[in-house]
Amino acid sequence: MTIDSVRGAPGTTELAEPELVRLLTPEGERVEHPDYPLDLSAEDVRDLYRDLVVVRRIDLEAVALTRQGELGLWASLLGQEAAQIGSGRALSEHDMVFPTYREHGVAWCRDVDPLKLLGLFRGVNHGGWDPAEHGFHLYTIVIGSQQMHATGYAMGVQRDYFGDGATSQGDVNESFVFASVFNAPIVFFCQNNQWAISEPLEKQTRIPLYKRAQGFGFPGIRVDGNDVFACLAVTRKALENARTGQGPTLIEAYTYRMGAHTTTDDPTRYRLKAEEEAWKLKDPIERVKAYLVRGDLADAGFFEKVEDEAKQLAKELREGCRSMPDPEPLSMFDEVYAERHPLMTEEQEQFAAYLASFEEEAK
Ligand SMILES: Cc1ncc(C[n+]2csc(CCOP(=O)(O)OP(=O)(O)O)c2C)c(N)n1
Ligand SMILES: [Mg+2]
């Protein structure tokens, strides 16, 4: 099956279901898959639901803060919550994650304070959290570079995130060769959200992305990226394989970017509303809610409590963002490298002279 048969020309709305691992239908019905048995208690499902709702709210708040001029930019995870929470909750404490710039849900699973995610986008720091403490590297905007970092980290690494667009980068393909040949303990987690800014998937590949893995010599699997259960089960198994010396796996989480690429993007210029509407029916949160309600696993009080918690967190985020101290301008050169770097010193001196020139003028 080619991608063309999965989806038509850019802008067409007919989205056939490709072959993928799914454990929870968009209607909230549990289905079994022979390779991915998953046993979750009602409490486990409620916890996943809470994660999904909270990260959507964090994201919504960050978009609003950008609109209010508090952040310079934000890359929204809207629609990709299940891919991130499912895979994020499959991680163990010792795994190391190499994220792109959209992995706010995974950051949540790695106990990174959501407020810390905002620092980079407010321009007050270069990242804001300690990667070693959280097993979660700093966001990297350069697409495809995560694969190099992750594969280089090889024997320590078990996790790596990237997007469909990044698969066209040379770095990604080179890292596949290295990971395969050295049997590195790594899971390549590609969130195929169908778009690389305004470029549709058709411009990245002629075959489904997960099938590329075969050519490099390791397994590839496509999972319903809007199904948190399937993402959890598939990632767990791939991590287990990595840990037990069975080498890399490519997971293609088939999902959809419901929002704009970032807050500076306007998707109405390159895609039809109908496509977004079709994906709304596969909302990752609604299906878990439907499952909980259908099975009588949660009552109205639970849903209200989760809403309240998300609201409270959003409030803290708003207040926390506005009260983040502005850094001393020259400090931005201090933490670029672990050790002092001559080029940074030179740039810092130039910038200091530039800042001083304003004081001269004022005299
Ligand atoms: C090496 C490099 N080239 C170009 C860019 C500009 N750029 C930023 S995001 C992006 C698209 C990435 O698409 P994808 O990998 O599908 O990830 P998504 O944004 O959809 O999560 C591009 C081309 C970049 N950041 N890095
Ligand atoms: Mg993409």
Overall description:
The protein is an alpha/beta fold and 363 residues long. The protein is built from 14 helices and 6 strands. The protein has helices spanning 3-6, 42-67, 81-88, 104-109, 114-122, 131-134, 145-152, 170-181, 212-216, 228-243, 273-280, 284-294, 300-322, 342-362, and strands at 160-163, 187-192, 195-196, 199-200, 220-224, 249-254. Strand 1, helix 8 and strand 2 (187-192) form a beta-alpha-beta unit. Helix 3 (81-88) packs parallel to helix 10 (228-243) and helix 5 packs parallel to helix 13. The longest helix has 26 residues, at 42-67. The radius of gyration is 21 Å and the shape is globular. The protein starts with a helix and ends with a helix. The chain binds thiamine diphosphate and magnesium ion. Magnesium ion binds next to strand 3. The site of thiamine diphosphate has 16 residues, from strand 1 and strand 3.
